[in-house]
Amino acid sequence: MKTFNSVGKSAPRLYGHGLVTGTEQFSADISLPHMLHGRILRSPHPHARITSIDTSEAERAGAVCISHKDVPQVKFNPRLVSTPETTYKDWTVLSGEPVYFGEPLAAVAAETEEKAQKALELIKVDYEVLGAVFDASVAIDPKSPAVHQKIFLDKKELTVENNIACKLEFSEGDVESGFKEADVVLERTYKTNRRYHTQLETKSAVCKPEPNGGVTVWSTTQTIHNSRILIHQVFGIPMHRINIKKVALGGSFGSSIHTNISTLIAVALALKAGAPVKVSLTREEDMRDHSSFQMNFRIKAGAKRDGTLTAGELQMLMDIGSHQIQAYALLATVFGWWASYYRWRNLRYLGRAVYTNKVPSCAMRGYGNPQTSWVVETFMDELAERLRIDPLDLKLKNYIGLGETFFGQGPTVKSIIRSCGVEEMLKKGAELIGWKNRHPPGKDIGVLKRGIGLSRGFHTSSAGAPISGHIVDFSGATVKINQDGTVDVVTALMDHGGGTIEALAKIVAEELGVPLQNVAIVQADAQTTIYDVCTHASRGIYAGGGAALKAAKQAKEKLLQYAAKILDVNPDALKIRPDESIGQGVIYLEALPGKSTTVGEVAEHARNKNWGSIAATESYRPTAGPPHFTAFFVEVEVDTETGIVRPLRIVAGADVGTVVNPQLAAGQIHGGFAMGWGMAMFEDTPYDEETGDLMSWGMLTDYKITTAYDIPPLENFRVFFTDTYEPTGPWGAKGIGEGSYNPVTGAIANAVYNATGVRFYELPMTPERIQAALAARKPAEIQVVEVARS
User: Fold this and answer.
1) CATH of the domain at 435
2) pLDDT value of position 781
3) pLDDT of residue 573
């Protein structure tokens, strides 16, 4: 096993001091001279047409006002991760025909937020109220109100039929023959919940108009370069006059993978006002800004008595809300997740994305994988029971692993699995949780019933692939060695708070042989960095780190060439090691220990001799998107009188290749469980169909999330990593962020079934639903009870 100097070692966080002292700046902290404050007027109807809008009173009150008449009516998609031929467009900056409750209609800017709010209330709007629909399965009925009549695919106008925004079909093999070969065929339907991201930071943007007609923007975003491109596309400003400053991101979970509409509104207000404008959303506004995707699944699979799968079929109807934030890409990824879990051998898929008059759905941690994992892993658990096979054995027999094809994020995003710790993960996890000793489903006696459940999962490490595919995925970095031996890494890659920046610093320090504290990640901007698509798909370490490593290798080559000239040796004979005692990287020859110099001395000598800077800039497109694998074993306790479920013990294994940040990687596993517990047990955003508004739109009383009180103590939460090395990753590393969450809900659901003998096909599994399910079961019944949807 390779030993490292920086990679795999725990170290203080590079920018930890600013985070814990509150001095780190986020977009909401930016304040500029003469800055105005913006507020947004939102639709009070889920679907309407504006017949008149009057901003004159607000303008007389001293506010700068804009409505849909004042902004370009350019149709766009705020998410620029997919290629143009798969990018559907149905947004405008401000709408004249709102299609969800809370859609921005107008905006004002004034000296204070209070003055802006008062001016906002002076705007008069008349509406023609139109019909609305809130259920995807109802929306596809030809008689249902149309959310959109026309949309664009790249530059081509399309007619929307039956509210179907887009669809994807794929098949491989002979599915019908596969079902005929099966000894057991199982078919089930599932419905997921629609959740709010609950990221720490609500969305904010500050826009400063520049004298040259350009703008400078500080915003909540996962992608400074895509934000720049979209502002150019919407407002027609040349890109070299648009600069997006990189500021800290207070979490995201995918909610800012796209350019936020509040950012575009801030730009429009600033351009009209001729002054800087800040727009910050309240938590209630943020909850009406985005949500996860709700999905309805129908899954069918056949298997032989020995557990060999013969065929699989998946149909998925996805509620995307009122606008597309790249629905087609999610249809593709759901196929990729499902097709890559097990060897279905013959498979068929139909995915449809459907408009409803709800808040637009966007990427949420796992991008459809948590939903798909819950379905597949609970389905396989039930299939194993029908086959009279241990679920652990059925999954070990059929999982897709080393040397096999991984579909990653869809039919065009394929690669070969080069590292896989699934078997080690499942066997060790089963031993640690006591899998062999668990009781049969529903056999625990007493009011408090205990059960153990298993679920395995994965996620891609980037959206890389040998071919271009339908997703843009490449990163870039500049590595520059300074005259004192320190190193600047300049990158547009965003850190969501999980430690991506620390990982990049360790990767570069390892390659250059310098102490970790000598490496800085520069908080740069769109004008001083080369393109990075965005931080998504758990690609930060794998793709962003891959770009930094590629640039570091080039800089190192130049460094050793200069050192060789100074030492009068062959550069291929030189090595570098960090020396903490002098705070430098030392360049040396193993055969001649006395013949050495330091990285700083070489850089300073190169400057004095006019040799040039030691630096390199590289773009990097991964040719693979290797899966990182995870498995959760969860023991729960179900109170059959109250329906309340508590987690008692958790064992979580992860295959992430080389573990770059051990403590932070373990922290991701803990955080992933917390999110999965919320998805399983209580998170949802139901709608009042009379008003079209959310029924749960406040954090204090209405929307419950997992807290520290819901998680077992640390001694009952065991995390371990498998011994693997990913040959395509920087220093053998893969991702971790999304895989740490994806299988959690399936493990919890299987544990609840093991405790009670009741299966649930709709999320969340609230105490009320558990009580109703237990009450509906006959006293002697131990087989599955399919719970009617409320």
Assistant:
1) 3.30.365.10
2) 38
3) 94
Q: Considering only CA atoms, which of 289, 309, 313, 134 is closest in space to residue 203?
A: 289
Element (H, E) at 548: helix 545-567
For residue range 281-317, list pLDDT tens digits in order: 999 999 999 999 999 999 999 999 999 999 999 999 9
Given a cut of 70, whether residue 532 has pLDDT beyond it is yes
Mean pLDDT of the chain: 95
- Residue 490 phi/psi, 5-degree rounding, is -110, 115
pLDDT the model gives residue 782: 37
HSE-up of residue 486 (Cα within 13 Å, Cβ side): 8
Kindly state whether residues 616 and 628 are assigned to the same domain: no
**Region of residue 23 (left: phi > 0; alpha: psi -120 to 50; beta: else):** alpha
Spatial separation of the C-alpha atoms in residues 764 and 636, rounded to whole Å:
16
Single residue among 620, 650, 669 that ends a domain in this structure: 620
Token pair of 137, please?
């399965």
Q: What is the mean pLDDT of residues 164-181?
A: 97
Instruction: Report the distance separating Cα 43 and Cα 356, nearest Å.
Output: 16
Separation CA 271–CA 135 (nearest Å): 39
In a domain, 677, yes or no: yes
Whether the pLDDT of residue 790 is over 90: the answer is no
Q: Are 353 and 165 in contact (CB under 8 A)?
A: yes
Q: Which residues of 3-26 are buried (b: 16+ CB within 10 A; e: fewer)?
A: eebbbbeeeebbbeeeeeeeebee
CA 39/CA 772 separation, integer angstroms: 45
